[in-house]
Design goal:
By secondary structure, the protein is an alpha+beta fold. Among the domains are: about 25-150, N-terminal domain of TfIIb, CATH 2.20.25; about 155-210. It has 10 helices and 11 strands. Strands 2, 3, 4, 7 and 10 form a 5-stranded antiparallel beta sheet that branches. The chain has a two-stranded antiparallel sheet with strand order 1-11. The protein has a two-stranded antiparallel sheet with strand order 5-6. Strand 5 and strand 6 form a beta hairpin. Helix 5 packs across helix 6 and helix 6 (about 180-195) packs antiparallel against helix 7 (about 200-210). The N and C termini lie far apart (about 55 Å). Mean pLDDT is about 75; it is low at about 1-5, about 215-225 and about 230-265.
Length: about 280
């Protein structure tokens, strides 16, 4: 299966231009939905990036750069992603299909032909990272086998949530009682993580923390940042299509993560084009 560029894009990143230019598009399964999704691979440094598009109700714009007008004026960001999020569903499937037996990483990540999951093995430190969520057995001096460990996964997700907590207060503008702040902040942090984990894993994390599940969010978690793979790439006929049974829940007009963003004092985009 091959992917080719379908259009040019304008994206923001903390990396330099020459770093962005060497990024190679690869197709991996979204860890939450399992759908084919675009990621960017820095082959030289062994780093994986995600490409996200900022969306908003009624937003229309274009870019004027280097005397050229780009019709698609969407705001997009290229940011690093922890490859363990991509690996987690693959590891769970491998354990299920092998009835709990240990398997080598080549066996687990090279068997899904419709994706490019074997590219994960080229990422810097990926094999060492698996120790955070897997049990490991030495088959021989040069060969190891792995099996995902649910207890380790839960500890790993808890650490991810705790790293998000310091940033949560700045995203919430509602008045919250002092004795409720910890629960509210934890809930927000968990639902930020929810985009990167399967629904079953989200339920486990919520249960462990004693947080009540929000039904409408687990059905279709959304935010300002969305994957926009289909807009930029076209695939060969062998590319799997997303399944649509007609029962997909409708997204809320105002996402939960957007509703609490502090936009006070922010000017609308159109204000920059008014006559002076």
């Amino acid at each position: 299966m091959s992917l080719t560029f379908n259009r040019s894009i304008v994206a923001f990143s903390r990396t330099k231009n020459e770093d962005v230019e060497r990024l190679v598009p690869i197709q991996l399964a979204c860890p939450r939905t399992g759908k084919p999704t675009l990621y960017l691979h820095d082959v030289e440094r062994g780093v994986l990036y995600e490409l996200q598009k900022v969306v908003g109700p009624g937003r229309k714009a274009c870019w004027l750069m280097d005397n050229q007008l780009h019709k698609d004026g969407s705001i997009q960001f290229i940011s690093p992603i922890d490859p363990l999020f991509i690996a987690l569903p693959i590891l769970h499937r491998a354990r299920e299909h092998s009835e709990g037996k240990f398997r080598t990483i080549d066996d687990m990540f090279g068997c899904e032909q419709d994706m490019q999951h074997q590219k994960l093995l080229d990422l810097a430190g990926f094999e060492a990272q698996l120790a955070h969520i897997c049990d490991i057995r030495d088959v021989s001096p040069e060969l190891r086998a792995y099996r995902v460990n649910d207890d380790k996964v839960l500890v790993w997700l808890m650490k991810k949530m705790e790293r998000l907590l310091p940033a949560i207060p700045s995203l919430i503008t509602d008045d919250i009682k002092e004795d409720q702040k910890q629960d509210v902040y934890r809930q927000e942090a968990v639902y930020l993580l929810a985009k990167y984990i399967p629904e079953s894993q989200l339920k486990t994390l919520l249960q462990h923390l004693g947080i009540e599940e929000i039904k409408e969010e687990t059905a279709d978690i959304t935010s300002y940042f969305v994957d926009n793979t289909a807009s930029y790439f076209k695939a060969s006929p062998s590319m799997p299509k997303a399944h649509d049974d007609g029962n997909t829940p409708k997204k809320p007009e105002t996402p939960r993560s957007l509703a609490k963003v502090n936009t006070r004092g922010m000017k609308p985009l159109t204000s920059f084009f008014k006559k002076k």
